[in-house]
Amino acid sequence: MKGETVNARGRVPKSQSLDAAQWNEYAQDRRFVLEWCSFFDSLPQPETMIVGERAADGTLISREVPTPQVKLAKAFGKGARTVDDRMAAAGLPTLTAMRERVWQTVSKVLKRGKCRTDAEYYLVIERINDVGDLTLSTEERERLEQILRQYETRRSR
Fold first, then answer.
1. What is 6-28 written as a DSSP string?
2. Which of 28, 21, 23, 25 lies closest to 6, judged by CA?
3. Which of 9, 33, 113, 126 is spaced 20 to 30 Å from 141 by Cα?
4. What pTM was computed for the model?
5. Residue 51 · residue 61 · CB < 8 Å
6. What sign does the dihedral 34-73-83-47 (CA atoms) show?
7. Which of 107, 110, 122 lies closest to 155 in space, CA to CA?
8. Cβ(28)–Cβ(36) below 8 Å
9. What is the rounded CA–CA span in Å between residue 69 and residue 115?
10. Are 52 and 60 in contact (CB under 8 A)?
11. Residues 3-40: pLDDT tens digits?
């Protein structure tokens, strides 16, 4: 049995075919993302903030703009547990499980000693930037930074 990916227009690119396991993983990931978006859309609208800029004549122009939802944990109160419960109720992997799956890629990069793809590169950047996560040692952070520099050097050639 072969499954195929569907692009944004609902069409199947002829050059892309997936085996049954890949198709099932894709379908589950797609359902996860749709459920996540539904959850995210159900959150209260963010507060607004006033931003200002100086015009050419020296006057200050201010406007009210929505505050970005950077701190999701604050937005959903009980944190990832609320999302995990919703995902489990929908028969989907939890946010915690998906995060673990993604972070496993970083462990593989560390063991391998290099990034192979842009996707791995960006995941490593996100992992390094997650300063609140204490599971990554200082030595691992330094090694990942070195791996990133090597990847950037290779990509710039």
1. --TTS---TT--EEHHHHHHHHH
2. 23
3. 33
4. 0.55
5. no
6. negative
7. 122
8. no
9. 30
10. yes
11. 555 555 555 555 567 788 888 888 888 998 898 888 87
